[in-house]
């Protein structure tokens, strides 16, 4: 007797993963379009194009950074930044530890407050890293301009943004302080844990 | 500087949106995503474990069976993902008689399983089954990733039962400076984790893996998917990988506790301090021929973590096989199919 090897747990592809990132990409595109629109108009009106570029890129960065400070203001754009925070929240939810799932009594305990503080530290570090990525992106764009290389399209710009985020995030990841924060994040969460129905 | 105009960007956004709409239809039509292509049959079962034999692809397969021990993390169908991306098929084509341990999905009843259960009992019983079945004293063992570490432990404890050992992307020194997983788990209170949760949820491990490269793995990858929405075959390949990535079994609590603490946090394997059951694992007992296969771009098991085996195993016939690629590419890339299984098979058949 033989059998095909398809008896594994049938994971259904979550289309929402694609849609979320597609929406975030489109929101990114909107910001870039606004930025280039302003830049196009500036190019016609101003002599000091370099200074104008710096100013408009600062506005572009501010718009993206603001979305991280206040995700509700532009949730699609915020999703670009909050990828890992979202993944963490989903992992915590799998343990029954999403804020909506926590009994109110627990939300007043020191353990829960300690977890919230750690989570804030964690998200804050992610935001700082993402801001550094925008600085790096600006630097790379300037280097390209100096070398006479144009950006081929929105996707190329997005890929550059990803590359810069991976670079700054990767530096953060390897920092001993991040190792400590990562451990503290999980440890403080676990100290809040209220046993659920047997999950496995 | 940028060389883009607002009109260009608007046009690109429109194209992207249109592709996205078309993609919804392609996804609906793509059908069942099958994983695993090579016919096989179960030859032994114990608890959640199933030992499979793959149908040979030559008339007279090699007399010494090859047992593949996969990691406890993720599912072993990565070794046999699809017809043109199957390490197992490559080994079969080369004339080997291939068996594989499928660990199944641990549940609450498995939380007390220890590493001794995996290394001594489960692997031990599978080795016994193959020795009896094939009429040989020794079998060939191929351990993959964490399964390689388990195979090393088993081999060090029972060297008389293993003829040749192949380790594939296997960590031996868990604290090389570039070992990011070890870095991330360093401050995790593993006792608190296991005492609190029992088994460790697969979703937590997914988080750990995605968090190594989130902008690529959780963002860019899905944006790029839009480019292949009109290619049903490429889309199926993507979905197959995606299924594997998120098909993460929970980890039996006690086994995870020991692996995380002894291997990752205290690096005891290379120090000769791991205790399995009541026996110490001394890698100098690994005296049979060893082929150590590693990937130069491996972000999960850095080459240095694998190559450390050269200095601490007792084999006088130690060889390395370098693959220019990453931890996943070594199983599924086209080049891996051409390079890795034939090289492993040739090395085994010569011994």
Most residues in contact: chain pair: A-B, 74 and 75 residues
Measured by DSSP, the beta-strand proportion of chain A falls in under 5%
| DSSP helix fraction of chain A | over 70%
Quaternary structure annotation: heterodimer
Order of helices and strands of chain B: HEEEEEHEHEHEHHHHHHHEEEHHEHH
In percent, how much strand structure appears in the residues of chain B?
15-25%
Gap from first CA to last CA of chain A: 31 Å
Mean pLDDT of chain A: 77
Question: Residue share in helices of chain B?
Answer: 40-55%
Backbone shape of chain B? globular
Order of helices and strands of chain A: HHHHHHH
| Poorly predicted runs of 5 or more residues of chain B | none
Query: What Rg of chain A do the Cα atoms give?
Result: 21 Å
Low-confidence stretches of chain A: 1-10
Counting DSSP H or I runs of 4 or more residues, the number of helices of chain B is 15
Q: Strand count, sense and closure of the main sheet of chain B?
A: 8 strands, mixed
Which features does this protein show?
heterodimer; A: 200 residues; mainly alpha; 72% helix; disordered N terminus; B: 351 residues; alpha/beta; eight-stranded mixed sheet; two-stranded antiparallel sheet
Describe this structure in words.
The complex is a heterodimer of chains A (200) and B (351). By secondary structure, chain A is mostly helical. Helix content of chain A is 72%, strand content 0%. Chain A is built from 7 helices and no strands. Chain A has helices spanning 15-45, 49-69, 75-81, 83-94, 110-146, 154-173, 176-191. Chain A is elongated and about 60 Å long. The model of chain A is unreliable at 1-10 (pLDDT under 50). Chain B is an alpha/beta fold and 351 residues long. Chain B has helices at residues 6-29, 87-93, 115-134, 146-157, 180-185, 190-197, 202-210, 214-225, 232-246, 253-265, 268-271, 303-307, 309-312, 329-332, 334-349; strands spanning 40-46, 49-54, 66-69, 80-82, 85-86, 98-102, 139-144, 162-168, 275-276, 279-280, 290-295, 318-323. Chain B has an 8-stranded mixed beta sheet with strand order 1-2-6-3-7-8-11-12, with helices on both faces. In chain B, helix 6 packs antiparallel against helix 10. Chain B is globular, with a radius of gyration of 21 Å. Chain B starts with 5 loop residues before the first helix and ends with a helix. The interface between A and B is large, with 74 and 75 residues.
């Amino acid at each position: 007797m033989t059998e095909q090897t398809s008896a594994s747990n049938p994971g259904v592809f979550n289309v929402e993963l694609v849609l979320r990132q597609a929406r975030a990409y489109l929101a990114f595109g909107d910001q870039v379009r606004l930025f280039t629109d302003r830049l196009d108009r500036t190019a016609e009106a101003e002599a000091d194009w370099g200074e104008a570029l710096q100013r408009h890129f600062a506005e572009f960065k501010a718009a993206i950074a603001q979305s991280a400070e206040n995700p509700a203001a532009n949730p699609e754009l915020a999703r670009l930044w909050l990828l890992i925070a979202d993944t963490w929240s989903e992992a915590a939810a799998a343990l029954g530890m999403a804020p909506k799932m926590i009994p109110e009594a627990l939300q007043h305990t020191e353990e829960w407050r300690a977890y919230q503080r750690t989570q804030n530290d964690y998200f804050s570090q992610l935001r700082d890293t993402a801001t550094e990525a925008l600085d790096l992106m600006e630097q790379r764009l300037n280097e390209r301009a100096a070398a006479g290389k144009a950006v081929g399209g929105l996707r190329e710009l997005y890929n550059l943004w990803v590359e810069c985020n991976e670079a700054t995030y990767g530096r953060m990841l390897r920092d001993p302080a991040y190792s400590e924060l990562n451990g503290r994040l999980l440890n403080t969460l676990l100290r809040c844990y209220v046993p659920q129905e047997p999950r496995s | 500087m940028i060389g883009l105009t607002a009109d260009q960007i608007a046009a690109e956004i429109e194209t992207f949106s249109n592709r996205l709409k078309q993609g919804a239809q392609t996804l609906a039509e793509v059908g069942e995503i099958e994983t695993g292509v090579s016919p096989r049959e179960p030859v032994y079962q114990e608890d959640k474990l199933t030992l499979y034999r793959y149908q040979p692809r030559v008339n007279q397969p090699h007399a010494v069976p090859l047992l593949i021990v996969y990691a406890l993390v993720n599912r072993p169908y990565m070794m046999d993902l699809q017809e043109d991306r199957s390490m197992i098929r490559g080994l079969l084509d080369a004339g080997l008689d291939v068996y594989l341990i499928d660990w199944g999905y641990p549940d609450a009843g498995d939380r007390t399983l220890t590493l001794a259960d995996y290394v001594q009992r489960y692997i031990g019983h599978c080795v016994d089954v193959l020795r009896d079945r094939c009429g040989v004293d020794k079998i060939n063992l191929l351990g993959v990733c964490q399964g390689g570490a388990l195979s090393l432990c088993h081999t060090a404890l029972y060297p008389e039962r293993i003829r040749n050992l192949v380790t594939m992307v296997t960590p031996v020194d868990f604290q090389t400076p570039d070992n990011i997983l070890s870095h991330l788990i360093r401050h995790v209170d593993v006792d608190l984790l296991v005492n609190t949760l029992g088994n460790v949820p697969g979703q937590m491990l997914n988080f750990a893996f995605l968090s190594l490269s989130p902008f690529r793995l959780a963002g860019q990858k899905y944006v790029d998917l839009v480019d292949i929405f009109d290619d049903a075959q490429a889309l199926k390949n993507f979905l197959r990988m995606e299924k594997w990535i998120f098909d993460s079994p929970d980890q039996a609590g006690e086994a995870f506790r020991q692996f995380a603490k002894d291997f990752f946090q205290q690096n005891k394997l290379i120090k000769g301090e791991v205790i399995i059951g009541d026996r110490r694992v001394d890698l100098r007992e690994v005296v049979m021929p060893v082929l150590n296969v590693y990937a130069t771009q491996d972000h999960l098991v850095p080459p240095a973590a694998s190559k450390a085996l050269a200095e601490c195993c007792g084999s006088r016939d130690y060889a390395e096989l370098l693959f220019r690629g990453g931890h996943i590419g070594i199983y599924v890339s086209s080049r891996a199919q051409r390079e890795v299984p034939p090289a492993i098979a040739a090395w085994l058949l010569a011994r």
